[in-house]
Specification:
The complex is a heterodimer of chains A (219) and B (957). Chain A is mainly alpha-helical and 219 residues long. Helices cover 42% and strands 1% of the residues of chain A. Chain B has 957 residues and is α/β, with parallel strands linked by helices. In chain B, the strands form 12 sheets. A 7-stranded mixed beta sheet of chain B has the order 6-5-17-16-15-7-8, with helices on both faces. A 6-stranded mixed β-barrel of chain B has the order 20-25-22-24-23-26. Classes of the chains: A mainly alpha (219), B alpha/beta (957).
Chain lengths: 219, 957
């Protein structure tokens, strides 16, 4: 009985098996890449705002403390976006007739709120709390990046769950002394590699199992 | 009981996870087509994960109020008004929107607890069907033109000293409103103020306040004091704390109940005697030696009297509001003879302002209206065209009124007959005041500006005066500061605390109306008539009350105590009466009384008095709104002003059946002892008796390694001895956790979404069984069967021992609910949550995800509250204190039956309770190691009566 398939079929079948695997792997890699890309996470994209408010100028240049505007960052889940009144504290005196600030003045006159575009927007099933992170030594810059150098704020991190877990699994790598939380320039001291682990202990930060329980963030 | 029949149908129902077809695909689209579509959508589902977040905005304040921290709720003390009486509450407010109602812990009428209706009040506030615009004959009008119309009408009235002016309200306890009426009636002496509160106390009488915590023996004559009446929240607390004391000590407590329709109060009785309404009066007379009873009843009376006399000054005899004055007089005499008055039974002023006989009052008004003597009628609240006694023909009479004004939360049946309709503000939008059961006065403050163009009762009444444009704030404040002499500091104090200090037993209202001398009441004869003849009791619906809450989906879907019926009213009869009349549950029957008749489905309730039937009124609304209209059957056509609580009539089969939606179809324990019960005596002798009633597998019997819970270890105990089955916890859970309403059709196929249910079990003879209530939330099993079967790890164990449910990870296989032995997991078969109605979005708890279709959900021990407390404690650098976290169910429980806490904290209440010998786990033999455990129920039977009971055949049923 003669062979049904030509010898070359062997090569072809090997090729298609491995080729299939490679194509499958490639597809996964592409999907994963797209999912982590700024296109999906919207990280690194500066947003249009009703007023082109510059953090670089206010926080970086003028050195205004984060908490002057984000008043509830130490008390509440929500850091607070300041009311128009906070802007007018200064801008009723300085740049009080700048055309750029007209929306602020008109909001203050009419009582109609400004409507800012959300930059850091977690899905509705995630319950993030600013106050506890700030209290436990997570610096503003750790998540939000160099906001003091951003003319228009963009999302610095991916805000994906794997990114959250980087810290929830090993908090020692990221936390800093409490008094350095609002310091945008702070770097972990090169001469003290044990600092993070010490702080985790000192601040009573829960162990990995507690920090990675689903209900800590999802409910 | 259907189980008696043990038909195949029931057998199947009992042993199937979901009733037949519950999960079947009924669309004409075939299975293959379905699979094709599904595979396509599955392929797309992967791509779906790439969805980008939509653009969202942050809208900050222009000027931020000082006390508001965005993201943190504020709590305000105020009061809700139930049947006219204050229910003191604390309301949680998220940036100006009230989202959750709790009891006011500092108020003596609440002590932190509430009932199901006040929990559901938040839904009524945001009800999109509320009346929204002022209208005159169907045309939208501004408030100003209403004021002008009233001024014009009042000019004529003043000339005639108000001869044509009538005002109709429900029960009023508000001192300010009463003062407004007083001054109006003083100015216009010929005007009249009428009252009609369909489910309230209809006849004035001497009021008493009971101290159940000081009593050793209690006898109730058809008094459902644990779920009805102004003081029921406090009474439930006192009753439970007395029972708790009895369980711990050797000073037992005994409760006898005599009642016609089984109530949750009767279910807590150690001895319960079902009597027809007509027999209760005779029973009351017999207590004072004034009547002869049948042998069985006489034996009961003798034993009860001996017990009462052995506890002189430490006993209580009560009679329900539905009982005639004669019974109340007998009860007062007995209490006086027992030396209870002044110790356990304290005389008090009625809380109602200027009490009147409501039935007579509305009859008089309707007669005046029909005779054309009423030229201006102001109806404040209420819905008399629907709920007035049938014989007064209120709706017909309303057509003869010159100018009718109706101020109401909803545009209802009465609004249709009135010229002017004024939307009434909800209690949470109003400035007002009210009195609680003990006379304590609360000032009601608004939590939110009125959502619609609504006015308060004060403003509507002020429209008839010479100063029409005053706001209710001005009116209420003027009353308190000028008339009552409160200073600014005391006013602020009252607003902060939720009550006016030292105001109980207030001095402003008159002496109680003279209550009628006994003897005028004619008990219906006990002669036997045609075979269908029964005594018919009228009672407000246990969930929606007199019908004004019919558009509240939470209450509509709330399984009624004992029967677990939702979305309908039914005729309740006992098993023997059903047998005699040849009726089965679900039969549509015709109930006839005199010349009137109604149709209603039948439900068989074990323990209902023989030859009597209970008809619940409140359903059958025609203009309630999208939820409540055309739901159920109306019983008001049978109710007359002469016999508002019971009458004689007959029940006739129509031959039709009617589908009823119940959430529990099986009331037997089947030897699994879900509820463990022992007598007080047996428990004192052998405390371990509860443990012997079930099997606890050893800790080593598991494949999984033992997990050490360091830190917090959450647990819960539910005291079945204290639980009254009042359902407050069910609605509290619904409000806290954004639990949706599914509708009657979905309840019929067992798709109700309540995270917490209250099961009822019967033991003993069905004519008068022992009744037990068992709230069942998620057990948070340590070896949870649901977790091991989830293919996507959407349900996993937390390090604190919670059985977490991750909605965003759930793909809806439902394996977990199939593997849950407690049936506490709920699946969103359809998109039950309302994502579109704007007003309902304001109501949601922002700390809990609103679940979408295809997602499993369940009780999480209110993990949002745990997390909030954990974060606060970490910020303060301390441990979480015992009692700092209260789950929504535990917080609202009037009996404090539910206790939540950290089991690793050995001093915590929950740890102490878990160490009690009464503690046991539900279906513990399955080795699920439930974190929620129960404390067994205790009974304290009177040995004299127990002998009689034992002689009767006892079997489970």
């Amino acid at each position: 009985m003669s062979q049904i398939f030509h010898r070359s079929t062997n090569t072809l079948s090997r090729l298609s098996i491995f080729g299939g695997l490679i194509i499958f792997g490639l597809t996964l890699w592409i999907v994963a890449g797209v999912n982590r890309s700024g296109y999906v996470t919207q990280a690194g994209i500066a947003r249009e705002q009703p007023i082109q408010f510059s953090h670089a100028h206010h926080a970086g240049g003028m050195g205004i403390d984060c908490r002057y505007c984000h008043t509830s960052v130490e008390d509440s889940a929500f850091a607070n976006v300041p009311p128009t009144k906070t802007c007018m504290n200064c801008h009723s005196q300085i740049w009080s007739d700048s055309p750029m600030l007209e929306p602020v003045r008109s909001s203050f006159r009419s009582g109609e709120a400004l409507s800012w575009t959300r930059v850091h927007d977690l899905p509705d099933f995630v319950y993030f709390n600013h106050s506890i992170h700030v209290r436990q030594g997570v610096g503003c810059a750790t998540c939000h990046g160099p906001v003091d150098q951003m003319p228009l704020v963009y999302q610095y991190s991916s805000l994906q769950m794997e990114w959250c877990l980087e810290c929830h699994r090993k908090p020692g790598r990221f936390i800093r002394p409490r008094d350095q939380v609002f310091n945008m320039e702070w770097e972990p001291p090169a001469d003290d590699p044990g600092l993070g682990a010490r702080l985790v202990k000192e601040y009573g930060i829960a162990d990995v199992e507690h920090l990675t329980s689903c209900s800590v963030c999802h409910r | 009981m259907e189980e008696y029949a043990a038909s195949r149908e029931i057998e199947e129902l009992v042993h199937r996870e979901f009733p037949a077809l519950a999960s079947e695909f009924t669309d004409p689209v075939g299975r293959r087509r379905f699979l094709q579509l599904m595979s396509a959508s599955l392929a797309l589902a992967g791509a779906g994960a790439c969805t980008r977040q939509p653009r969202e905005t942050i809208v900050p304040y222009v000027r931020q109020p000082e006390e508001i921290i965005p993201g943190r709720p504020l709590f305000f003390a105020t009061a809700l008004v139930e049947n006219g009486v204050a229910m003191p509450v604390l309301v949680e407010s998220h940036m100006g929107r009230p989202t959750k109602i709790e009891g006011n812990p500092e108020h003596q009428a609440s002590l932190g607890a509430t009932d199901a209706r006040s929990q559901a009040a938040i839904l009524t506030l945001y009800d999109p069907d509320r009346a929204q615009t002022i209208s005159n004959r169907g045309e939208v009008r501004p408030w100003g033109s209403f004021l002008a119309a009233m001024q014009l009408a009042m000019t004529g009235q003043r000339a005639a000293q108000g001869a044509g002016l009538r005002i109709l309200t429900g029960t009023v306890t508000s001192p300010t409103l009463a003062a407004q009426f007083d001054s109006l009636l003083k100015e216009l002496p010929r005007a009249r103020w009428h009252r009609w509160e369909p489910s309230g106390r209809l006849a004035p009488r001497q009021d008493f306040i009971y101290h159940f915590d000081r009593a050793d023996v209690v006898l109730s004559l058809d008094d459902d004091f644990l779920s009805c009446g102004p003081g029921h929240i406090r009474y439930a607390r006192d009753f439970a704390s007395r029972r708790r004391g009895a369980a711990a000590s050797k000073q037992p407590f005994r409760f006898y109940a005599v009642e016609s329709c089984p109530s949750i109060t009767g279910s807590k009785a150690d001895h319960r005697l079902p009597l027809k309404p007509s027999e209760i009066a005779a029973f009351a007379r017999a207590l004072n030696g004034g009547a002869r009873l049948s042998e069985q009843q006489a034996a009961f009376t003798d034993a009860v009297l001996r017990d009462l006399r052995a506890h002189r000054g430490r006993s209580i005899v009560t009679a329900g509001d539905t009982q005639p004055p004669e019974v109340h007089e007998e009860v007062r005499r007995l209490n006086a003879a027992l030396g209870n008055i002044g110790t356990t039974v304290v005389a008090a002023q009625p809380v109602e302002a200027r009490p009147v006989d409501h039935a007579a009052s509305i009859a008089e008004l309707a007669a005046d209206m029909a005779a054309g003597r009423v030229s201006l009628l102001l109806i404040v609240g209420g819905n008399p065209a629907f709920d007035a006694p049938a014989d007064v023909n209120f709706a017909e009479a309303l057509k003869k009124v010159g100018l009718a004004v109706h101020a109401s939360l909803f545009e209802d049946e009465t609004s249709a007959f009135c010229h002017w309709n004024i939307p009434l503000s909800h209690s949470l939008e109003s400035w007002s005041d009210a009195r609680a059961y003990d006379g304590t006065e609360s000032i009601i403050q608004p939590l939110i500006a009125p959502l619609y163009n609504s006015r308060t009762a004060h403003e509507v009444v002020a429209a008839l005066t010479a100063r029409p444009e005053r706001s209710s704030y001005d009116i209420v404040r003027e009353h308190w500061l000028k008339t009552r002499g409160l200073d600014e500091q005391a006013w602020r104090r009252a607003l902060h605390d939720g009550f006016v200090a030292a105001s109980s037993g207030g001095a402003t209202h008159q002496a109680p109306g003279t209550y009628q001398a006994p003897g005028t009441y004619q008990a219906p004869g006990t002669r036997t008539e045609a075979p269908g003849t029964v005594e018919i009791l009228f009672r407000p619906d246990p969930a929606i009350g007199d019908g004004q809450l019919a558009n509240n989906g939470w209450l509509q879907e709330l399984p009624k105590p004992l029967t677990k019926l939702t979305w309908d009213a039914a005729v309740y009869v006992g098993p023997q009466t059903a047998d005699r009349l040849g009726l089965a549950a679900g039969d549509l029957v015709e109930v006839r009384a005199a010349t009137r008749s109604i149709r209603m489905p039948l439900v068989i309730v074990p323990g209902h008095a023989p030859d009597s039937a209970t008809v619940h009124f409140g359903y059958g609304r025609r203009r309630a709104g999208r939820v409540g209209s055309r739901v159920g059957f109306d019983a008001y056509p049978l109710r007359t002003s002469a016999a508002p609580w019971h009458t004689r009539g007959e029940i006739v089969r129509t031959g039709e059946t009617y589908p009823l939606a119940t959430t529990q179809n099986h009331f037997l324990m089947e030897n699994r002892n879900p509820v463990r019960v022992a007598t007080h005596e047996a428990y004192q002798r052998e405390p371990e008796i509860f443990r012997h009633m079930g099997h606890t597998p050893p800790k080593t019997l598991t494949l999984y390694p033992d997990y050490q819970y360091t830190g917090n270890k959450w647990g819960m105990t539910i005291d079945l001895d204290a639980c009254t089955g009042c359902n407050a916890c069910v609605v509290a859970c619904q409000a806290e956790n954004n639990v949706p309403v599914v509708g009657k059709d979905q309840v019929i196929v067992s798709r109700e979404m309540h995270w917490l249910r209250v099961d009822t079990y019967y033991r003993g003879h069905l004519d008068n069984p022992e009744t037990y209530h068992q709230p069942v939330p998620c057990m948070q099993c340590e070896t949870a069967p649901c977790e091991t079967v989830c293919p996507v790890a959407a349900t996993a164990h937390s390090a604190e021992g919670l059985n977490d449910m991750v909605y965003n990870r759930c793909v809806g296989t439902r394996y977990c609910s199939n593997n849950c032995p407690y049936k506490v997991r709920r699946f969103n078969f359809l998109l039950y949550a309302d994502f579109t109605t704007p007003s309902l979005q304001l109501m949601r708890n922002p700390d809990v995800t609103v679940r979408s279709r295809g997602v499993m959900e369940k009780c999480t021990y209110c993990v949002q509250r745990i997390n909030a407390a954990r974060i606060e404690s970490k910020k303060d650098g301390r441990e979480i204190r015992d009692g700092e976290i209260q789950t929504a169910c535990a917080q609202t429980c009037p009996a404090q039956a539910i206790v939540f806490g950290n089991m690793n904290d050995l001093g915590s209440r929950v740890a102490t309770l878990k160490a009690e010998p009464r503690n046991y786990g539900l279906l513990e033999d399955l080795n699920t190691r439930p974190r929620t455990t129960y404390l067994g129920a205790l009974r304290n039977p009177n040995s004299e009566l127990e002998k009689r009971d034992l002689s009767r055949d006892r079997h489970e049923g």
